[in-house]
Amino acid sequence: MTDILGIGNALLDIFCFSEEETALSLGIHPNSTNHVSPDRLDELLLGIRTPVLVSGGSASNALKAASSLGLQCSFVGCTGTIEGESDRWALVLCADLASYGVHLAIEDRSHTTGRCLIIHMPGALKSIVCAPGAAPSIRPEQITQEAVNNARIVMLDGQLLRYNELSNHICTLASQAKVPLALDIASVDIAKNHSILLPGLLTRGKTILFCNADEAEELALVLADTVPGDRGFQTREELVHSVFSFYTARKRSFPCIVRKEGPLGATAWCSGSVIHREGQAIDLPLDDTGAGDVFAGAFLCAWLAHAPLEQALDFANKAGRSCLTVPGTRLDWDFFTTLKEELPVYQG
Q: Which pLDDT score, from 0 to 100, does residue 345 have?
């Protein structure tokens, strides 16, 4: 039995911590996110000294956290090859995931492994350059009914909502197996332009939906027309609350909508209730890449252990905050071993 079956973009995060305005010297605007070709990313990497390599991607980051907390996790994705063999980026990515105990169900592609370059500069400036490469080339056939049937939760990287055939296939398999589907919206663009499946998932499926504050606002705007009644003038926060409350009004475990709020904590809408738990800021965070993904992985651990929603949010907040002192999801084993002791023991 697999506790969490994760499906998503297999990406290698490459960190650069510079005392100079490195992004400008490479022709990249500070505080920007850019998508480039693999060849262009190779050119940029020539100007990066002492890079730090960490496996990334929304679903795989969450699985690293869940596996570190004692769950059995399996990841479905795609990595690249060169001359018929896994390229060097794939080798690093897969070795890192395996070191956290994540089982890999990865297919090779004749592209370069997906990579994201994250450049940190003085003044809290950060630039991101991403070359998805092989990452988004998952085939529906990679996800089988047997694999879904053997999972307690299926976790879907929201970026895959861009691909209708694939996302419909996964949602259908989860529905047929009566297995909960956890979905991280992943970006404002996904919420705005690729959320056609969400009304059905929220009304008929066993769905746990994760989003950050910006994604929540955009998602509420998109879903507003599906909610009956005249709400008059509402602030964005009021709209989020009214839309999310409508979809979670029934007294049942699903759907559950969780908004990740960084240092402000997190808010969950579930079973006719709204629960907010405060977070805790840290001084001078090193990097926040993947912190929300780790939050999601830890929340699912607590959920599967039948922890009360308040405890699940507190637990996830602690896990997410731990990422702020390391590059990406280079998780501290000792911290997660200690954190695991706070979970109730699942009697399943």
A: 64
Using CA atoms, how far residue 175 sits from 82, 180, 260, in Å, is 38, 8, 26
Q: What is the pLDDT of residue 161?
A: 97
Domain ranges, ordered by start, for the chain: 2-10+57-107+137-340
Cα distance between the two ends of the chain: 12
Q: What is the pTM of this model?
A: 0.95
The pair phi, psi for residue 294, each rounded to 5°, is -65, -40
pLDDT at res. 44: 92
Q: Which amino acid is at 109?
A: R
Measured N-to-C along each axis, helices 236-247 and 213-223 cross at an angle, to the nearest 10 degrees, of: 70
In angstroms, the CA 316 to CA 207 distance is 18
| 114 vs 155: CA distance, rounded Å | 20
> What are the CA-CA distances from residue 297 to residues 114, 144, 271, 302 (Å)?
22, 22, 21, 9
- Please say whether the beta carbons of 30 and 153 come within 8 A: no
Percentage of the chain lying above the pLDDT 90 cut: 84
d(CA 108, CA 146) in angstroms, rounded, equals 21
Q: Is residue 180 within 8 Å of residue 300, measured between CB atoms?
A: no
b/e map 7-43, b = 16+ CB within 10 Å: bbbbbbbbbbebeebbbeebebeeeeebebebeebee
Main-chain dihedrals φ then ψ at residue 245, nearest 5 degrees: -65, -35
Q: What is the pLDDT, as a whole number, of residue 229?
A: 76
Architecture of domain 2-10+57-107+137-340: 3-Layer(aba) Sandwich (3.40)
* Residue numbers in the chain where pLDDT is lower than 70: 231, 345-348
